[in-house]
Amino acid sequence: MSKVRVLIVDDSALIRTLLTELLSKDEEIEVVGTAPDPYIARQKIQLLNPDVLTLDVEMPKMDGLTFLEKLMRVHPIPVVMVSALTEAGCETTLRALEIGAVDFYTKPNIDTQRGMEEQADLIIEKVKTASQARVRTCSAAPSASEELRKLAGFSAMLKVTHRIIAVGASTGGTEAIRALLQVLPPDTSPIVIAQHMPEQFTKTFAHHLNSLCPMTVKEAQDGDRVIPGQALIAPGNYHMELRRRGGRYYVATTSHPLVNRHRPSVDVLFHSVAEYAGSNSLGVILTGMGHDGAAGMLAMKQAGALTIAQDEASCVVFGMPGEAIKAGGVDRVLPLDEIPASLLSHLQAA
What we know:
Blueprint: E1 4-9, H1 13-24, E2 29-35, H2 38-48, E3 52-56, H3 64-74, E4 79-84, H4 87-99, E5 103-107, H5 112-118, H6 120-132, H7 146-153, E6 164-169, H8 173-181, E7 191-195, H9 201-212, E8 216-219, E9 230-233, E10 239-245, E11 248-254, H10 266-276, E12 281-285, H11 294-302, E13 306-310, H12 319-326, E14 332-334, H13 339-349
Parallel strand pairs: 1-2, 1-3, 3-4, 4-5, 6-7, 6-12, 7-9, 8-9, 12-13, 13-14
Antiparallel strand pairs: 10-11
């Protein structure tokens, strides 16, 4: 098997050296070159034809976003963004994912070298995953189909307040979740979401979606009620679980150990939805690497929920949906743009 060829683009000599050393430890990866700025990177891309690019968000001469936009137009390639864990860094990284970056890695704020060495496995996994991903260029905001508009117009939507929609995603999931929420009507049944994402990013992600979507979108806080017209996103570095008190649903956030190497974990959310909502729930598993969510989706199906997986052709990475299908936990496999109508149709038939 040929190695994954990586080009590292970063204005910091320290980061270029660290990434080269860390990635080179894996026998399936070959760092074919480095570049301190986008202009040299452009030359080396043409010369070396790498499989994956790691790209710093902030660089001299040309910032990472501008370079990424140009790159996606003329030479689409899997890109892993490297950013700082700051509010500005979060916003820029989310924009990079919209433009076409596959994934991102956040540099530790303190003791960068030691922190990156401790996260070597994560960096390696992100690069390998990117090498398998389908590169998608920036797309316009999704528009609702005629079928979806008709479904959204039914007043029956207001009556299904007891239904819960649970969504799980990882690599490529930020754009998939955006595409899903942007076309759902404002009175859609409550949605709870687990997206693999670090602290600070989930808050910025929720704010961004809230500005784009008819529903209210917010980063969940412990004890938040689960109500129609609102989507709650699990906070980074916390699990989110559904709970019920009488006739009311709410969420609990915990810092319990990682599950499937993740916190938040899709499995944790899905298992809780199976337990507390059962047949009054719908499960959706979107693009992502790994198997997180497969066991939880099976539990939801066994509890009587309708379960939907994004199909391979529309996924950036088919890992999580594929594993859920293999586990026998999926009722329907659909392209991303057909999932909203399927959800609404099922809700209105209830």
